[in-house]
Automatic annotation (TrEMBL):
Family recorded in the similarity comment: Belongs to the transposase mutator family.
Name by which UniProt lists this protein: Mutator family transposase
GO BP terms, alphabetized: DNA transposition
Function: Required for the transposition of the insertion element.
Keyword DNA-binding (UniProt): yes
NCBIfam families in alphabetical order: transpos_IS256
Keywords: DNA recombination, DNA-binding, Transposable element, Transposition
Example GO molecular function: DNA binding
InterPro entries for this protein: Transposase_mutator
């Protein structure tokens, strides 16, 4: 099999991932790739590049003719090579018509999941009758780097982000001949208009106070401001970094993680009862009601589940911080479950890679996935912030 060099224009990639005409971007991507495959197949059959003189040359080019190809993402205009003596042949059209949707998906994977070079080689060989070298595919994927880097370092100054949710996940990366576990730090914000936006992504050796501090410092340098509440789990380094970089903001301990922490030290026979009691506490109408329910729960289970009650007492204030906010917002900001759903989406794509070849490939793949998610979020407002802004003004007035 011949190995064909495929190149993509940065503007085309920009249109594909963050342009408004998404279907048009996919169509242009297909048109570019398929036309290059046709040219490469002509070179293969003639055993010579255009204007190249060799002893093994099998014939001469004679221009090309246009052929339209209708797809679900639009009509493609392909340039099919002509030969002076003989007939140019290709299986591309027949293969494409049999598996149109598969090819669209595969070419998207070539760009977004391109770090899995062996997978790309296999798919493209099956669908296009051609194979791509590992170096060619790697270079193709690297064309995404400037686009992802531009997105993840963009300015955050235009809007304020009252609510910020952060979390970390771990991936395997091959470094210096060894496979190592590395922390990927991510976070999204709910801006002043009620829309979700991915704020950033970073990779570090581990999830430590230093790594989170560097992550937050980077966000602030890009203009992150107006942070009122930060939601996360209770990783020690993360909490300390939040307190240092967002002084004046409130930290909300994820209630889902907190509930798990309590149930982990609860006798099995009492877990369902205590879980129900915790739900009542966290869903209380206000902080005073929550404290009353807390005292009742402690009185009931202090002797039966002392470790669970100690954990509850120690973490109550941080887990109940959300009760100070208007009731209609609490369900959205009391846990970091939204960030965990983002991580699950990343895992779904990342699972085909298993072990990343380097840190750059981690940023390339996960960054592209996050860009895609953010584009989906932009079509729907996550919450109405009208009540929040009125509440903030009233709170500021009362503090004077």
């Amino acid at each position: 099999m011949a190995q064909y060099q495929i190149t993509l224009d940065e503007a085309l990639l920009h249109q594909l991932f963050i342009g408004q005409a998404r279907d048009e971007g996919v169509a242009k991507l297909l048109e570019t790739v398929l036309n290059q495959v046709l040219k490469a197949q002509a070179t293969d059959q003639l055993e010579a590049e255009p204007y190249e003189r060799t002893q093994t040359r099998q014939g001469q080019r004679n221009g090309s003719y246009a052929r339209g190809l209708t797809t679900r993402v639009g009509k493609l205009q392909l340039e099919v090579p002509r030969f002076r003596d003989g007939q140019f042949s290709t299986e591309l059209f027949a293969r494409y018509q049999r598996s149109e949707q598969a090819l669209v998906t595969s070419l998207m994977e070539m760009v977004v999941n391109g770090v899995s070079t062996r997978k790309v080689q296999r798919i493209t060989e099956e669908l296009c009758g051609t194979t791509f070298s590992k170096s060619t595919v790697s270079e193709l994927c690297k064309q995404l780097d400037p686009l992802v880097e531009s997105w993840r370092t963009r300015s955050l100054e235009e809007k304020s982000y009252p609510f910020v949710i952060v979390d970390a996940m771990y991936v395997k990366v091959r470094e210096n001949g060894r496979v190592r576990s590395r922390g990927v730090l991510t976070g999204y914000g709910i801006n002043e208009h009620g829309n979700r936006e991915v704020l950033g992504i970073s990779i570090d050796d581990t999830e430590s106070e230093a790594s989170w501090s560097a992550f937050f410092e980077g966000l602030k340098q890009r203009g992150l401001h107006g942070v009122d509440l930060v939601i996360s789990d209770t990783h020690g380094g993360l909490v300390q970094a939040i307190k240092h970089h967002f002084q004046g903001a409130t930290w909300q301990r994820c209630q889902t993680h907190f509930t798990r922490n309590i149930l982990d030290v609860t006798p099995k026979a009492l877990q369902s009862e205590i879980k129900a009691a915790l739900r009542s506490i966290f869903e209380a109408q206000n902080l005073e009601s929550a404290r009353r329910l807390l005292e009742e729960t402690q009185e009931m289970y202090q002797e039966k589940a002392p470790k669970a009650m100690e954990t509850l007492e120690r973490g109550f204030d941080d887990a109940a911080a959300v009760l100070a906010y208007p009731e209609e917002y609490r369900v959205r900001i009391r846990t970091s479950n939204g960030m965990e759903r983002v991580n699950r989406e990343i895992r779904r794509r990342e699972s085909v890679i298993q072990i990343f070849p380097n840190r750059e490939s981690v940023i390339r793949l996960i960054g592209a996935v996050l860009m895609e998610l953010e584009e989906l979020w932009s079509n729907k407002r996550f919450m109405d912030m009208t009540r929040y802004h009125a509440w903030q003004k009233e709170r500021a007035k009362n503090q004077k």
